[in-house]
Protein 1
Amino acid sequence: MEVKNRYTVIKHHIEDAPKESNFELKTEAFALSLEPESDDIIVKNLYISIDPYQLNRMKSFNSSQGTISFSVPIIPGETIDGAVIGKVVASGNAKFQKDDLVLGVFTWAEYSLVKEGNIIRKIESTEFPLSYHLGVLGFNGLSAYAGFFELCKPLKGEKVFVSTAAGAVGSIVGQYAKLLGCYVVGCAGSQKKVALLKEKLGFDDAFNYKEETDLNSTLKRYFPEGIDVYFDNVGGEMLEAAVTNMKVFGRVAICGVISEYTSDGKKASPNTLDIVYKRINIRGFLAADFLNVFEDFYTKTSDYIRTGKLKMIEDLSSGMESIPSAFVGLFKGDNIGKKVISLA
Amino acid sequence: MEVKNRYTVIKHHIEDAPKESNFELKTEAFALSLEPESDDIIVKNLYISIDPYQLNRMKSFNSSQGTISFSVPIIPGETIDGAVIGKVVASGNAKFQKDDLVLGVFTWAEYSLVKEGNIIRKIESTEFPLSYHLGVLGFNGLSAYAGFFELCKPLKGEKVFVSTAAGAVGSIVGQYAKLLGCYVVGCAGSQKKVALLKEKLGFDDAFNYKEETDLNSTLKRYFPEGIDVYFDNVGGEMLEAAVTNMKVFGRVAICGVISEYTSDGKKASPNTLDIVYKRINIRGFLAADFLNVFEDFYTKTSDYIRTGKLKMIEDLSSGMESIPSAFVGLFKGDNIGKKVISLA
């Protein structure tokens, strides 16, 4: 049997803030059956994770930069891979049966032809909404858990600052920090998000950075005694202001630097004298390096959700057509919580 | 008995590159005997350590900066404290006898009146030149040891880059790295220093940064596979280039940022995307936090010196009059190795 499979591509490399017109929805004929000797798996995609880091893969990298390229580049006109949850339609692999629910690195498409190595795991439990496995119980949750607990080694009572606190990762970091007994302030880009942080997610305080003119003073107001832990999702001026307001032996985990992903973003220039004299530790990290704590993360986080101590904030859009606006919206702060495309 | 004691002061706060005219040599009447009830110690100073960090204490700090002030400020017209080695002239304290050699935080002066708390330790052994206890066997050595071994946790065979490699700390870091079996490249500001690094200190390679036009390309040339450990003494553009050329899981220890101590210095703006994707760890530190490893450091380093495996590079000037030019010279790269004023 053959279907029309729709998939999303970029038309060209993207250097600046992405626009919907950068994307195109393509259609291909797609066989729902496998060749007899194939050990691949065909998956019907149900939920597609939309993440800011993908923009870094959409840039063109020229070799003169001296930097490593940021993971595997996305090629204009070709399928885009990312975290997806789907249902197995056909399998040439004994480990996967028809109707299995699988999480893996599939494509921004209605159907994906998948190698075994691209399947991260089967989702056996339906206790939680499926999409949670892309967010709070997936890589966003692991990013929050590993970056906060493993890198920052926070102590009860410490002062924690989280940027893009109403985003997929920040919203979880802030809740972890509260559960540990920290004082937590988040920043976000709208009053609605600020209200969410304070009223629904239990942050001690929150502010709308767009209403602030001097971030140094803002952070001084919220942290008169200084910041112990800064969980950074934005980079730029917020990172500078946070470093200025850190306490001695402060720790910064850089999960992402969304304000610097586009070429017009101001690059962070944190005060190195502060870094030396306050013995600040700044670390970049990727959740993928912390698969060794996945079980621990998953067990604890499931318990927190089950007992209502941790809330997943999701922002769902429907259908392949919604991918461009969903992705572009990430960089305009449109989403509240984890952005997911539902194809279910 | 009373002597004329000469001491050095700053005339006013110093914001830019220091000039000799910023300093003044003052004279005061100074009693070489103590009041009967005093438990202080009078020290005749023999060697004064001249260190770049003192410039940060000579600045004026206004409270609006939001930063902590960098240790205790130096006040114009008043004595300047720093690491000094001296001989006890008179003591009201049973722990210290006349003619004891002591290392501590005394003043840039011929004589200092000292509280017990300002004496770090007696120097019991005369196996090494006294001045070594200000450099390779003192805080410079401890900075090199702690920053390199404790923070960077280097492995044999790793690629190590050291800036101001012919300076008091860098010259020791490079030698430690070679003793561990690392590949070590240093940068310095003259051909004479570069020759010293390669011919006397055993660096695998070295370059004169003043002859380089594009530090990114320079580091790419010396580290085609990337840098594992960067021991930073300068900050600024060198820090940016090093981060760009780091390998994944690279470590940066920031010991000092001499290029940023003056207000006209370009502030480092390391690529945060590199920090995230390469999981770079950047840490500032102060040697004073690592007194717990002092014994270990001292024993190993003494052995290395004794067996000729580690060389102390000193740059001695004579007399109180030489302090301004010695200090100013630090920021022009005049010194080769540890700058010490000898009053002996």
Protein 2
Amino acid sequence: MATLDAQLQTLMWAAREKTLALMADHYEVDAKTTFNDLVTTVDKETERFITARLKEIDPTAQIISEEGFGDEVHDLSGRVYIVDPVDGTLNFVKQQTNFATMLACYEDGQPKLGYIMDVMNQTLYHGGPGVGVFKNDHPLNPPVDRGLRGSLVDVNYGLLFTNHHNVQAVIKNASGLRLYGSAGLEIINVLEGRLGLYLSRLKPWDLAAGRALAEGLGLVVKAIDEKGLDVLSSNLVLVATKQVADDVFALVN
Amino acid sequence: MATLDAQLQTLMWAAREKTLALMADHYEVDAKTTFNDLVTTVDKETERFITARLKEIDPTAQIISEEGFGDEVHDLSGRVYIVDPVDGTLNFVKQQTNFATMLACYEDGQPKLGYIMDVMNQTLYHGGPGVGVFKNDHPLNPPVDRGLRGSLVDVNYGLLFTNHHNVQAVIKNASGLRLYGSAGLEIINVLEGRLGLYLSRLKPWDLAAGRALAEGLGLVVKAIDEKGLDVLSSNLVLVATKQVADDVFALVN
């Protein structure tokens, strides 16, 4: 596992170089489902680069990836990689910063290793359960648990309009709401103790790497809807410190 | 004015050193009006430092400041300085980053010079109408105007719960909502083109410096409530590119 970890870290840094080179060149932006659900040729080329390299490193593994260059995965037995080449594509397009590249390695449905690269800040968060979590070469300690009232939180604002699951009460009982627009960067903020909670509807590639890292620091990763945590489908999930998670579950329905 | 500008820039860098030294030491945190309206001894000491230095630089000017070490200002004739020692105090306390120090110089009620220091990123935005706007030593160009649908926006989330002034429509017609938790940093994001709109209820010290910089780049700074723009009181104000401002005024009531 240590050799694989080293190979995947090297891959993440190579993917960063690839992304920066593609950004510096001309790239195309297209809408997927709506005007604010974007994909770019940088997403696609970076994903192609990562999946090709994963096939060399681990030829028999399956790959789940956002833009479709991976496999059709229906069962999670054995080793499965989950790839998000550009997490926070709107930020990528509108801000040229505040986006991440994410990769996770699962075995028999369980998170083993997670990687979140904050591309523009040149910072790789990596690790997993039993391995610990590192920010580049520095080990991270679990964040201070300030409970909900003492914490800044990030709650998907789509939920907020309709007060879905009573999330307005969660926000009103927290210190304040922040929205950064990239699941990977929100989860980094929870790892670093800058947010006590991230609550959003997440697709497999949005959560997989962050879950490995969050569980590696003893944080809570849990679905708040009836469906439970599912690596293959979209879920309404929280990533939080223990006390914050307890406070949230007392409020949501 | 160029000499004064140079003196005020030097003051901003000195204030940054002061803030960093106070952060490294023990500081106290107190609640002001509610559990999430905080003030720290760093706010107070930094403000005391800035106001004392302003009294040396410009002995006859008046000073409006958040924590009360300035003057009681009732009219804006002559030169008035407006000081916010720590903008984004919640971020300061919970994140130890994402806060700003702000200073503005007004003459007869008109913005002349503005300064926003992103303390942890060591970046000073400075300038004003007729002077241009600079990021440290580099001149900034006006941001690209993408209109509301093409822009990420920051809208105070207190307004969102109640749909005050129909702000939910503003958000639904934008590319996405972001919330960073510091008026100074939100306005920097508008200057840099990373946000097309910042809309919030702002106190004099939240807006004064940002207004000088935004108007220095030809951006729109305008009250959306009946009260109009008022340097001495709290307003519901937008800072936006021209097309975004037009799009917003067509939606709000």
Protein 3
Amino acid sequence: LGVPPLPDDTPAGDGVRGWLHSVARSHVEVALKHPARLIANALGSPPADVIAQAHEKGMLVAALAGKAEHALSHVERGVDIVVAQGYEAGGHTGEIASMVLVPEIVDAVGDRVPVLAAGGIGSGRQIAAALALGASGVWMGSAWLTTSEYQMGPLQSSVQQALLEATSSDTVRSRIYTGKPARLLKNRWTESWSEAGAPQPLPMPLQNILVAEAHQRLMRAGDPSVVPMPVGQIVGRMNEVRPVADVMASLVAEFDEALSRLDRAR
Amino acid sequence: LGVPPLPDDTPAGDGVRGWLHSVARSHVEVALKHPARLIANALGSPPADVIAQAHEKGMLVAALAGKAEHALSHVERGVDIVVAQGYEAGGHTGEIASMVLVPEIVDAVGDRVPVLAAGGIGSGRQIAAALALGASGVWMGSAWLTTSEYQMGPLQSSVQQALLEATSSDTVRSRIYTGKPARLLKNRWTESWSEAGAPQPLPMPLQNILVAEAHQRLMRAGDPSVVPMPVGQIVGRMNEVRPVADVMASLVAEFDEALSRLDRAR
């Protein structure tokens, strides 16, 4: 892929992410020392003692769910908010798309906790659609990656360029990032794992440890065609860098427009 | 899979479907002799002469699109209605889920032709969501498979039983049905194509010719765990056989409820 090696003074293990129990625990401990209002867990239900500690400090606990049975399990364990995350979402995600998943999860747990819709949401029309499906609100991730406030340091320009150029067809759901299926920008790096003779990804947490150094090299290469970057299918509509305030104003205006249009459909 | 052979008097070639140009042409010729109001094309744009003949007879022509560029191509060729069909749909379908695809196609061609949303729609909430996304209406397929009026003859009971029992996780998008990706019920038949040593599917139209006899055997076996059946992720909500009139009444009532709920969100 033509990606240069790391400088000799790069710390060993730099770039290994938190998909290890020990690392996740240390993140939670830091979070619990801050006056956060919400802790959200992306993979599985948070451990019972974490939920208890968060509640003691007056924090709410959210958890992502890709199936109704996951949502039921979250609520039984004391989670306060369920995020129904569809196939089109970025990062770790399941097989069921938002149009089908959101009503299923609302019907499973919506009488007990608020359900937020995630996956494919980047405009007020999509917020209106999520609420029509029964969600109490939405959870947006990818859309913030192309806001002015999003700071990635010196690596920013190649990542943002890749995001701005990508269409909704330029993502792939793959196990190469962590060992579990996650949606990523599709590019020369992800495609190289589909070539004849490419190895199968290792199970979590080994895969991220395997590719941690490669990720660092790919990020530093300054080449938009190789960045290892989780993002949802909504990336096709992320076509300019805008301040968060502008994005929020658009979301509200588009939501109002969508509701007015629906009124006329009656 | 324990599936019995066909009776000796089965006509050769029975079960080969229309994914051959010659077969599709003969279907169109029959359709054009009837007083139909609409011809819909699922794979690609209809040929120019078919569009012209349909228009001469006062028929409208619809075409399915899984990407905005397909929709643009359809409209340039004279298609009257575009069906934006998301990943969650049954049968041949693309990678982009409805939540992302519908607004993209509405923005690409919605000022020139009506756009209908397809994929994941089986309730009035989902119709409201589709309209919130900008669609002029919806196109439902799977939901009709479990209506009283749907008649498959003697093979019906095992197919309907399989549909009623399936959850939204029990489908798979695979090339084994025709050679192009199509969403099917996931069962012992589809899983056998993922086993070690299983062959790769052939390209269209060869794959359907290859499996035509197997499809006949699987359908006649009377075993719900092997039926080769295209269906969307909405199959998880198809849990009883109902008359079409009841389904329509529910769709209208749920649509009204969803709009009333959205009104209160303002």
